[in-house]
Design brief:
Elements (H helix, E strand, L loop, with lengths): L3 H15 L8 H25 L15 H7 L6 E2 L5 H10 L4 H12 L22 E2 L9 H17 L11 E6 L6 H15 L6 E7 L2 E2 L2 E2 L4 H6 L5 E6 L3 H18 L3 E6 L18 H8 L3 H6 L5 H19 L8 H5 L7 H8 L5 H7 L13 H15 L3 E5 L15 H5 L4 E3 L4 H14 L2 E6 L9 H8 L1 H5 L8 E7 L17 H4 L5 E3 L4 H18 L2 E7 L32 E3 L5 E5 L2 H15 L4 E5 L2 E3 L3 H11 L1 E9 L4 H11 L5 E7 L17 H13 L1
Parallel strand pairs: 1-2, 1-3, 3-4, 4-8, 7-8, 9-10, 9-11, 11-12, 12-14, 13-14, 16-17, 16-19, 19-20
Antiparallel strand pairs: 5-6, 13-18, 15-17
């Protein structure tokens, strides 16, 4: 009994042989046919390679090859975010850009075997991607690339308004493909809503969304008529085409692209397709699809439909098949990734010197004076954390025309806590603007702006609001460099207002301490400025790393410290700091307070202020404590940690995050891994959500707990 992929190949050959071999040669159709046949044969070859254990990927494009006609309607410089069934599109675009079909086939096969020479990801994943083709690698199966696609289209329009260049032409159109099952995912729903929201306001959004509807999501049928209903949304044009009608697809795709390019608005192309070869190599399609349904799908083969216009289609198919087989044999000997260092190389290649140089904000002095109403912050006396952040954002916006600040309530209101106050007045609504209330879309806008060449600084209003959008950081932002082998980056600094200890307000959703959700994202930088003097330097470090290395960073700002002025006594004003407009912190460097020889307290955020107060009380009893502010919780300042631990031989970690999966776990692990043989302990908040009012103190780390733990540790 032959396998499904061999049966499909034999069936195509039989149908092609039965077609009449007369008629005039149509060069355009022949070129399209080659791309579509190449895509089909790559899928068949992938199954053969998997059988021999030399290939690692079998999700294919068989039945979807008419997306090559969508590529034909676009320019090779139009940014494309393609889902995994876009083989025809990728191969045709490769030819549009002047590459031979053999070159394009080889590039795809290199990805299938995980070869280092794979131009898309350097052997890290089988993705459609190539910087020279304006194809951004995507690994998503659930449409998580849609928010970024909206962001790319938004970037094209916004850069044009600001007179800035991006990596795309001024009149470019972004295109994004996804499946019918994915249209139900919250990520897709949010992105479609955002696209319509922008169009409703008249904001330029040149975007073509292609829903390739094969009627089934793995094994679950899509209800008939559902995609059309789900796709028809306010502000978004809707067009339909049958994938086995080449003229209809070509004409409809051309209309969609023309409308998006001319009118600068989003259009959704509903492309009805079929799916051959099941979902992937491990999927047994006959277990859930009737034989009659599978047979009926064969009559809707887009490859055969186009072949009727290509007199020598059978011979061309054979030629492409031989080429694919030959290339598959050749690439099987290609080197693959052989060390963890090779795998991880693209993750975080920061250059501290370049970051420091890029972090300095060189604004025109006269312009800067005007922006600050002739009252420069460095001359205003010591500032609070919120004031320092506001001044640093102002300086950065003044020096970086490509920088945009946006989020919920950041513009007119100036932020819930006033951190972004006056920024829109100073720089205008094109650079500082309010968004709709959807964190996925906020981060997606940032991803699209960053990969296009701008410098986005989105704000997530509260840490608890991040969790419904976390994958935009984990699966899209931080992974972009990894899965493109560094060819694409999305520089971005995400400001998140978080942590606990707000007085008289909030409960869990405004006092969230779940930092663990950020600390396990590879390649991400997470900083927590607590002392006002660190706010500007740390922000500038993140901006410098974004500009110099394409870094994605999160600046987690302790809400309870925004407007704090005092440290030890009411009115002492010791929690204020002078503003230095030129200072740039070093990522993964901590800050040490004091030089006590008895105890090292390691903390961050609100814990820093509490630890400094505890250290003063211990000093009254003759106990010398120094306090290390980690400042960066990803990556941790390990060198500083080990140095300060060795200085006293006794370490207490004061962790305001939860005991399980909190920052303290990582600190203790670093000490153990380094062979620290002194005394150590940790105190942390309880494994609980934060309740309202005074009850919060029952589960959050307190000064008294830090002091009691310090004394117990010193007593041995």
């Amino acid at each position: 009994m032959s396998s499904p992929h061999e049966e499909l190949d034999a069936g195509v050959r039989n149908r092609l042989a039965a077609l009449p071999a007369d008629g005039a040669e149509d060069a355009r159709s022949a070129r399209l046919f080659d791309a579509m046949a190449g895509s089909r044969l790559l899928d068949i070859q992938a199954r053969r390679m998997r059988e021999r254990n030399v290939g690692h990927y079998t999700i294919g494009s068989a039945g979807h090859e008419s997306n090559a006609l969508v590529a034909e309607a676009l320019r090779p410089s139009d940014p494309a975010l393609l889902h995994y069934r876009s083989g025809g599109f990728f191969l045709f675009r490769s030819q549009q850009a002047g590459r031979s079909l053999e070159q394009a086939l080889r590039a795809v096969l290199l990805g299938m075997v995980g070869a280092i020479a794979d131009p898309a990801s350097g052997g890290r994943h089988k993705v459609w991607g190539d910087a020279a083709l304006a194809v951004l690698p995507q690994t998503s199966t659930i449409a998580s690339q849609l928010p970024r696609a909206v962001g790319v289209a938004f970037a094209i329009g916004r850069a044009r308004r600001l007179g800035l260049a991006t990596r795309w032409p001024d009149d470019a159109v972004a295109v994004c493909s996804f499946g019918d099952a994915s249209i139900n995912h919250s990520t897709a729903v949010g992105a479609l809503n955002t696209a319509g929201y922008c169009a409703h306001q008249g904001l330029p959004l040149p975007l073509v969304l292609v829903c390739e509807d094969n009627g089934i999501g793995i094994s679950v049928p899509t209800p008939p008529g559902w995609v059309e209903q789900a796709a028809r949304r306010p502000g978004i044009g809707y067009l339909y085409a049958d994938g086995d009608d080449p003229d209809m697809v070509a004409g409809t795709a051309a209309e969609a692209v023309s409308t998006a390019r001319r009118e600068r608005r989003p259009v959704l192309l509903h492309l009805r397709t079929v799916r051959y070869l099941a979902h992937a190599g491990t999927d047994v399609e006959t277990a859930y699809r009737p034989a009659a349904q599978l047979a009926a799908d064969l009559d809707r083969d887009p490859l055969i439909a186009l072949a009727r216009r290509v007199p020598d289609a059978a011979a061309r198919y054979d030629a492409v098949a031989r080429c694919v087989a030959r290339l598959a044999g050749e690439i099987a000997r290609e080197p693959v990734l052989a060390s963890a260092e090779q795998v991880m190389a693209p993750l975080a290649p920061r250059d501290d010197r370049a970051t420091a140089e890029a972090g300095v904000c060189h604004a025109n002095p006269e312009r800067r004076a005007e922006l600050f109403d002739r009252r420069l912050p460095e001359d205003a006396g010591p500032l609070t954390l919120a004031q320092s952040l506001n001044a640093a954002l102002t300086d950065a916006l003044a020096a970086r025309p490509e920088m945009l600040v946006f989020g919920e309530d950041v513009a007119r209101k100036g932020g819930v806590y006033g951190v972004t106050r006056s920024l829109q007045h100073r720089f205008g609504p094109a650079r500082v603007f309010d968004t709709l209330l959807d964190e996925q879309s906020i981060l997606g806008l940032g991803l699209g702006l960053g990969v296009s060449g701008l410098l986005p600084v989105p704000e997530i209003q509260y840490l608890a609001y991040l969790h419904n959008a976390e994958d935009q950081l984990r699966g899209e932002a931080a992974s972009q460099r990894f899965f493109s082998n560094g060819a694409f980056t999305n520089p971005m600094v995400v400001r998140i207002q978080g942590l606990a200890y707000q007085k008289g307000f909030g409960g869990h959703f405004h006092n969230d301490d779940a930092v663990g959700v950020l600390r396990d994202i590879p390649g991400l930088v997470v900083g927590i400025p607590a002392w006002p003097g660190d706010a500007g330097p740390m922000l500038r470090a993140c901006l410098g790393a974004a500009a110099a290395s394409g870094q994605v960073s999160v600046l987690l700002e302790p809400i309870a410290l925004y407007h704090e002025r005092d440290l030890h006594e009411p009115g002492d004003r010791d929690w204020l700091a002078a503003y230095d407009p030129s200072a740039v912190a070093r990522i993964a460097d901590g800050r040490t307070y004091g030089d006590g020889r008895d105890l090292t307290i390691v903390s961050f955020g609100n814990g820093l202020r509490m630890s400094l107060r505890v250290a003063r009380r211990l000093a009254r009893d003759g106990i010398g404590a120094r306090v290390l502010d980690l400042r960066w919780v990803l990556p941790l300042p390990v060198d500083d940690l080990l140095r300060e631990a060795a200085a006293t031989g006794t370490v207490l970690v004061a962790d305001e995050t939860r005991r399980s999966a909190g920052v303290g776990e990582g600190v203790i692990a670093e000490l153990v891994d380094a062979g620290f043989d002194g005394r150590m302990a940790r105190v942390a908040s309880r494994d609980s959500y934060v309740p309202l009012g005074a009850a919060a103190a029952l589960v959050l780390l307190s000064e008294q707990q830090i002091e009691d733990a310090a004394r117990r540790l010193l007593r041995g």
